[in-house]
Amino acid sequence: MTTLRIAVVTAGLSQPSSTRLLGERLATATEKALQANGSTARLEFVDLREHAQDLANNLITGFPAGSLRAAIEKVTGADALIAVTPIFNASYSGLFKTFFDVLEKDSLAGIPVLIGATGGSARHSLALEHALRPMFAYLHASVVPTSVYAATEDWGSSGAGGPGLVDRIDRAATELADILDRRPAVRPVDPFDDPIPFAQLLADQRA
C-alpha cells in the first residue's frame, strides 16, 4: 500500500479558524478517497499564522528561520498540496501570498494542488478562479478542476457544513486522489542529494 504525503497549508488568522476547519475537512476527505483507491495518506499541516513573523523576516533577509524552513520543506517535499486562504478584499490574504512568494523557483512544479478559501459571503467565491488558480498555474503546479469556497452560511448553525459544501469537498478530494492514483509523484531532483565523493573528483582530475 502506497503512503502519500499531503501538505495542508492554511492561512487563517483567528483561533478557532474556519480556514483551518476547511483545510481539515478537505484533508480528511482526500485521505478517505485515497483509501478507497488503495493508498494511505500522511497529513502534514502548516498553519501560516505561526510563521507570520518569520515570513516577514524571510522577505528582508532572503533566508527562512528554522521553524519556517521546516514548514517549507513539508510543502516542497509533499506529494500533493491542499492550500486554503481567507479572502480579504476579493483576493487571497497577504500572509498566504507571502508564503508562496518565499518558495524557491519551480519548487511546486508538477505537484497536484487542491485550492480552497473561506469568506463572509458567497460573492467572494470567484477569488479562487481569478487569484488562486492563476498563481498556482504560474508556479507550474497542477490544480484540480474543483475549487472549494466556504462562506459563513455554508457551515450552517451546527458548523458541520451543509450538503452543498460537503458535496464540493468530496468532489474536489476525489479529483485530487484520482490524480495521485493515476501517476507516481514526480518531484524536482536536488543535485546535492547524492553528491560525487571528493576522492572520486580528485581521481578524475588526476586521470
TrEMBL record:
Domain NADPH-dependent FMN reductase-like: 5-155
GO molecular function list: oxidoreductase activity
This protein's name: NADPH-dependent FMN reductase
InterPro entries cross-referenced by the UniProt entry: CE1759_FMN_reduct, Flavoprotein-like_sf, FMN_Rdtase-like_dom, NAD(P)H-dep_FMN_reductase
Organism: Antrihabitans cavernicola
Keywords from the named record: Flavoprotein, FMN, Oxidoreductase
